[in-house]
Amino acid sequence: MSPQMSANPLGPLARKLMKGVIVVELLGVFGAYALFHKMNNSQEFRNTMNNKFPSVLEVYYQSNEWAGVYGIREQDHEAWSAKRD
Q1: Could you tell me the CA-to-CA distances from 38 to 12, 31, 35, 61, 83 in Å, in that order?
Q2: pLDDT range class, residue 12, cuts 50, 70, 90
Q3: Which chain regions cross the lipid bilayer (predicted)?
Q4: Which residues have a Cβ under 8 Å from the Cβ of 36 and sit 6 or more positions away?
Q5: What CA–CA distance (Å, rounded) separates 68 from 42?
Q6: Collapsed DSSP state (helix, strand, coil) of residue 59
Q7: How far apart are CA 18 and CA 24, in angstroms?
Q8: Which pLDDT belongs to residue 10?
Q9: Is residue 33 within 8 Å of 63, Cβ to Cβ?
Q10: How much is the pLDDT for 6?
Q11: How much is the pLDDT for 11?
C-alpha cells in the first residue's frame, strides 16, 4: 500500500454523515422548542393544535404538569367552551 492511500477511505464519509446527523438533531431540538414556545404563549394556537394534533397538545400539557405548572388545560377548556356557547 502506498503512503498516499488512506487507511480508512470511509473516514470523510463517516464525518459528513455524523455532521448531518448532528444538524438534523439540532433542527429537531430547536423546532421542538419553537413549538413549545408558541403553545406556551398562545391559547389560540393551542386550540389549533387541539383540533389538528391533539396528541401533541397532550404532551405539552403533561410536560407542564410534570414541571409543576397546573391549570393550563383547565383554563383552555373553559375558554374554548365559552367561545362555543
Answers
A1: 39, 11, 5, 13, 21
A2: confident
A3: 20-36
A4: 60, 63
A5: 19
A6: helix
A7: 10
A8: 72
A9: no
A10: 57
A11: 85
Residue of 19 and 84 predicted with greater confidence = 19
Contact residues for 49 (Cβ-Cβ < 8 A; gap 6+): 39, 56, 57, 60
Burial 50-77 (b: 16+ CB within 10 A, else e): beeeeeebeebbeebeeeeeeebbeebe
Mean pLDDT of the chain: 90
Contact in structure between 23 and 16 (CB atoms under 8 Å): no
Q: Mean of the pLDDT values across residues 28-38?
A: 97
Q: Which ranges of 1-85 does DSSP label H, i.e. alpha helix?
A: 11-41, 43-52, 54-66, 72-84
Show the cell assigned to 6. 488512506
Is the distance from CB of 57 to CB of 39 less than 8 angstroms? yes
